[in-house]
Task: structure prediction
Amino acid sequence: MPVVIVRCDGDAAVGLGHVSRCIALAAELRDGHGCTVVFAMRGVDTAGASSVRGARFEVARIAAGGQEDYGEELLDLVASRGAAALVVDVRDALSRASLDRVRARGIRVVVIDDGSERRLASDLAFYPPVPHVEQMNWNGFSGRRCVGWEWVLLNREFATDAFTPSELSESSPAIDVLVTMGGSDPAGMTEWVVESLESLPMPLAVCVVVGPAVTRAERLASSIAGSMHSVRIARGPASLAPLMRASRMAVAAFGVTAYELAACGVPAVHLCLTADDADASRIFEREGAAVTAGVFGEVTREALAEAVRRMMSAAGRRGVMAKRASQLVDGRGAARAAALVAAGLS
Result:
């Protein structure tokens, strides 16, 4: 069976979005195409590596530091495992030349949402519908570029056809506002959002998702303790899809979570870490699937609370947004991408 090496990292600093979408692709390669998938990760004791092992994949260690071009080390790993393909989803010093050397061995090179020169050394490049893709220089690229809502890589639990009404059991209380800031939330947006909601006049049922790499439990508990709302914490839940589908709306950090919410048909207010994230979020807004609050550090608590108030006060608008969101993202992007990666591998 073909061997595929997946290179990614996930920890408190970089978050878990890269790991999440790589696991989604790896699961489709393994279960749908009979591939053996090995993850190459810099931190083997991180939350990201734990998630990978929890999904029943092997983790091989990358020894080089984050500022080094570790192409030779990666090439040795690819060669020693007899890999037919290499999937890369990183933001580090790995160079285009390193991937050129891998590709010269006849190994299929795949990049995910890569804005660096590495993308030009790939056979396949996958991107969500983000504006910066068309702004990049693609001279010298001889591979296939796959850009759009249909190529968003999500775990199969988020697929529209994976949902059954039994997920929403009567014992699970309805959630007015789901607050989810990703797997690590290094900027501390979770407690900021919880505190911002205090200015709302109506009491709400709020569920706060605390990712597995979040380390500020005491501060978050303090923010929640005095809340006027009914707040519960979901700490590293095994599955996010049921929580999302039980929610009337969400406040979410823009990233993989934004696409997961869309696939579940949940209207959302996006809080962004960077201007690039805000640009990507505005595509959701233009499509009528979400609202862009702005960049964290620039948006005020009052503005965020007002965006939540408006959405909670307009059930009809939420219904329209929910329908449009689920039309945009069907949750089958990983299966489509896996079929292209696996095609012709031996």
Summary: Confidence is low (pLDDT under 50) at residues 165-171. The chain has two domains: 3-154+331-342, 161-328. Residues 3-154+331-342 form a domain with the Rossmann fold fold (CATH 3.40.50.11190). The two ends are 7 Å apart (CA to CA).
